[in-house]
Design brief:
alpha/beta; Aspartate Aminotransferase, domain 2; Aspartate Aminotransferase, domain 1; 2 domains; three-stranded parallel β-sheet; 38% helix; globular; binds pyridoxal-5'-phosphate
Length: 370
């Protein structure tokens, strides 16, 4: 029996009847751009994230791009971020005209090391962009403590609904940053039926700027204070996401349960390093990612057994050809480089059946002769 890495059809089947009537009535109304569905989802995501404001946009990449612009980041500026992330985190920094400055990760959580971020700050640094990788939040409070006045854009594309205990209080992904960004790409924990994104903030002035940048830099139609973007969240996607949102907590709990099952099932295999969740964090396990020295051999074995798997990410951003102009070399961020050679993610999606989960365990254990 083949097991997919992610089964979106299985999730759709469980909510089809909740999603489709709203979509049909929106199509009958032909009211596709912004409007009530987007406003409703913005309120819901602000509620979940414990932020005062939320602004829907076209995707998670634009969410970062617009956040950078809202902080007036552009040519001549530096932005400190992680090289062990999806390309969009740094591509957007480049695209606003700024320079990405890559600092290494913690090898256990795969998130940016706050001390290295602080050490990389220069007079040109305008923001730090930590990524909440694989579903667990970065050490936001530590970055804040080391850099009290530095704006933080939290790339929470993989971590909507994740939380972290800071000074005894739960803090949601996006809540404690200057600006938090989410993606509704179908493979994220809250995924649409197409692209979508959201930006959250506690700051009213930033909120107004985000709204303006989303619609060509215009507040009053046809009058433009600045050059912005056409980056709206589609109303059809907003309806899908509002129908899915009430299920998000249970789905993420199911992912945690699957993760705990795997970690238990691999406990006697010393060659497998299971995901490490910082005791302050509650992860939403967008990915269940193990480290294995013989990673490429394990991949070949899983492929032969029909077990879905993927490597996030095989080449850290500081070594990408497009960033050669920045002058990083092999060895610049050794933990990111080592992680890129050793990680592999296994199926952890909430609809995974017990039989599928067992199949994954048997295949992985089999590789280690167990
Ligand atoms: C998915 C993702 C993005 C980009 O989101 P899109 O909606 O695909 O544009 C950005 N950062 C990270 C870490 C992501 O995982």
């Amino acid at each position: 029996m083949a097991v997919p890495l992610l089964d979106l059809k299985a999730q759709h089947a469980t909510i089809r009847d909740e999603v489709l009537p709203g979509l049909i009535s929106l199509i009958d109304d032909q009211a596709f751009i912004l409007g009530a569905p987007v406003g409703a989802l913005e309120c819901e995501v602000a509620g979940l994230s414990q932020t005062r404001y939320a602004v829907g946009c076209a995707n998670g990449t634009d969410a970062i791009l617009i956040a950078l612009r809202a902080l007036d980041i552009g040519r001549g500026d530096e932005v400190v971020t992680s090289p062990f992330t999806f390309f969009a985190t740094a591509g957007t920094i480049h695209n606003v005209g700024a320079t990405p400055v890559f600092v290494d990760i913690d090898p256990k959580t795969y998130n940016i090391r706050p001390d290295l971020a602080a050490a990389a700050v220069t007079s040109k640094t305008k923001a730090v962009v930590p990524v909440d990788l694989f579903g667990q939040m970065a050490a936001i409070e530590e970055i804040r403590r080391l850099l009290p006045t530095m704006p933080i854009i939290e790339d929470a594309a993989q971590s909507i609904g994740a939380r972290r205990k800071i000074d005894g209080e739960w803090v949601m992904a996006g809540q404690a940053a200057t600006i938090g960004t989410f993606s509704f790409f179908p493979s994220k924990n809250l995924g649409g039926y197409g692209d979508g994104g959201m930006i959250v903030t506690q700051d009213e002035a930033i909120f107004k700027r985000l709204q303006r940048l989303r619609t060509h830099g215009s507040v009053q139609t046809y009058f433009h204070e600045e050059v912005g973007y056409n980056s709206r969240l589609d109303a059809l996607q907003a309806l899908v996401l509002s129908a899915k949102l009430p299920h998000l907590a249970a789905w993420s709990a199911k992912r945690r349960e699957n993760a705990a099952f795997y970690t238990q099932a691999f406990a006697d295999i010393a060659e497998i390093v299971p995901p490490y969740i910082d005791p302050a964090n509650e992860s939403i396990f967008n990915q269940y990612t193990i480290r294995v020295a013989r990673r490429d051999e394990l991949k070949a074995h899983l492929a032969a057994k029909g077990i879905g798997h993927s490597v996030y990410y095989p080449l850290p951003l500081h070594l990408q050809p497009c960033f050669a102009y920045l002058g990083y070399r092999e060895g610049s961020c050794p933990e990111s480089e080592r992680a890129a050679k050793e990680v592999v993610s296994l199926p952890v999606f909430p609809e995974l059946t017990g039989a599928q989960r067992d199949e994954v365990v048997v295949a992985v254990r089999g590789f280690f002769g167990k």
